[in-house]
Amino acid sequence: MKHVASNQLHNRIEKIKDVILVVLFLTAILLLYFFWENQGFESLNLSEIVNPQEEYESIPLDEVIVPDNIYASSGNGVHVKVYSGKRDLWKRAVAEIRKFGETSGIFVGEITKEQYLDAMSGYTSVQFDLGYEVPFSQFCDYYKVTKSQNFDTVEGVSTIAWSGASSESLFIVQEQKGKYYRMVADQDHTQLRAMAEEIVASEDASYYTISELMGVENTTMIPWETSVSYGPLSWESERQRGTDEDVRELAQSFFGENFDFIRRMVDTKGNVTYMYGYGQKTFITYADGSFEYKEEVNSSTSGAPTFYGSLETALEYIAAHGSWSTFDDQPISLFLSRAKAVEQNKQKGYRFEFGLMAGDLPVYYDQGVPLAVEVINGQLTYYQRNLIQYDLTEEQDISVQTNAANVIASNYNAIYRLIHPEAATMAPKEAWFDEVVVGITDLRLGYFRSINNSAEAEVQEMVPAWIVTVNNNLRVFFDVNSGELLGSRTLH
Amino acid sequence: MDWSKAKNILIAALLITNLVLGMAIYRNINGSGGREQEEIKQNTILLLQEHGILVEEDQVPERIERLPVLSVRYRTISEESIALAIKDFQDVLEPSASKEEYCRAAERLLRGMGLFQEFFVCEGCREEEGSYVVSYGMEFEEQYLDNSKLKVVFRDGKPAEISSSWAEPVAMGQNKKRVLPASEALIRFMTILEQETREETIHVDQMRLVYWLEGYTENGGVSEDTAVPYWCIQYDDGASVHIAAYAE
After folding, report:
1. pLDDT (tens digit per residue) in B92-129
2. Is the CB of residue A261 less than 8 Å away from at least one CB of chain B?
3. What is the dihedral of CA B19, B21, B23, B25, to 10 degrees?
4. Closest B-chain CA to A36
5. How far is B69 from chain A (nearest CA, A)?
6. Residues B202, B203, B205, B206: what is their CA dihedral angle, to the nearest 10 degrees?
7. Would the ipTM clear 0.90, i.e. be above it?
8. Residues in a beta bridge with A69
9. Of B18, B220, B226, which is closest to A31 when you measure between CB atoms?
10. Which secondary structure element, helix H or strand E, spans residue A310, and what is its range?
11. Chain B within 8 Å of A28 (Cβ-Cβ)?
12. B25 → chain A, closest CA residue
């Protein structure tokens, strides 16, 4: 009996020792962690261990890279502009461009602007206008287009085109420098003729050059008749549909563990600024619902940033700070609308602006853009977020009541006075018409969302509008039904 | 193998390990041992002396490990309410009134206006060209908010004006962050002064940890702000330097 009792006691002691061992071992690991990281015990965050920070999924580059314009022509001077399905068309086009690149002995030669325009208007053609310029070599690398030695001749690409005028060729436009190239293979290896004919046969709107419609020399294309799928749409900013906690989480994503020690300032307009250090990092939430983040450039690093590498950095950053959905988890349809090389503190990088789609039409603001990011040498130094949410009504086919050419003709005075503010009190002159029309560099349909007027408006509504760009630095908005001037903004 | 003995050895070894780690972490949190701190202080004082900066041993504060941020709200006092309060203030102080009496009168005035708060600290009364100026600072939870001041000016025994650059403390932050040791702040102070050309010896008058609002201007259009800890080093009878106290 005594022996049995002794055994039981011994077993119990051994079990207790086992438990003590496990506890001491785990404690040792924990203490080692604190010792190694040189932190206090208050740095232990149980919620982070139980609910670790979710990993953010970025969206692929191909989702946002969509040509700004895709035009096709049957050679009669009329061009058809694609509104829907651009992404798929571009994917098909890239496959054809890749086929072209696989041929050997490609010759690259420079042509004149007139030769290019003639090839696009006088023959079956298709043009893919990216809307921004990419270094041609990087473009080929990204899309896996085999590069010939002669490709070094082409510095950058903003438009790639094909024309029946020289069906074995591809045409490259570098708009910033006004350069046009023809890349000639031994024969036509692509299906781009079929694509051009397919687009022409679609019911998308026909575009004509301003020269043809308005009698003033300008090869910018504008539509004669067109329609929209939706009427005016009511909208709310992402901030309006979100909560204070959403804003706090967004702010915290920029500062991490330092969030509790940053300077928070609220100004009399209701804008809130979060600042780390002496302004090394600044995040501002504006009363109008937009957000802006700035970070000082790290001058100690150096390198040669690539376009697509910088864009990927931008997309990943957006995914981790605010995500590709709004505060209430509504996905947003964004596309790369503008890109340009920038420089800060002698460090090179890129600025990317993203547009927002409402149905088939892009949304334009009279101030700011939906998303803008600057990546300098791989470091994100600027991030602006000004997203809106809207509810699409029932899809219709609403004919646009005004004609773009007539709208310009009726409002050239107002446009001139926007270009030349000093002429505000002058009587209009005939010469103004020519100057305005010659200066038009883009005209398209879109939605116009006014930030300036939204504060006083009872209902926040964006309307289909003619978006007229003049001299690449002024954008003017006109109502598509009344032709009324809605607003304007300067582009930088 | 006698597992029981092996467990005993393991338990003893882990106990000793945990004790050593615990002590090391405790020293990291609460700073180096007293002797080591004293040595650092002495070395720093000597180094500053070599660079023409004189600081007394008792002027170097004891190490304060961690502090939170301080949320503040900017307050302005309207000219109309000041004028009304001054007009309604009945007491007139005798020409022979003491500085304490001026301080009490100032407090009565501010209480009458509903402005006086528990964190107001009377910094004294001084005579300036025939006027008596009672100054108030702000002390919240034993921490001083340096660039928040309020002054009541008396002329001929009556309050004449109230001036303020007033940031009202609201709340301390929930989390604390490590603060730069005083010795290190003095080294940075020395570095700042060395960028200026000077020949005279610098005498440090006071060194203390305060909360400070960087770039605070009275009409900056800001309603709320956050003050962070700074080492305030006053020297040569009036000059001062603020050095960011949050360690990176």
Report:
1. 888 888 888 999 999 999 999 998 988 899 988 988 88
2. yes
3. -150
4. B25
5. 6
6. 60
7. no
8. A129
9. B18
10. helix A307-320
11. yes
12. A35
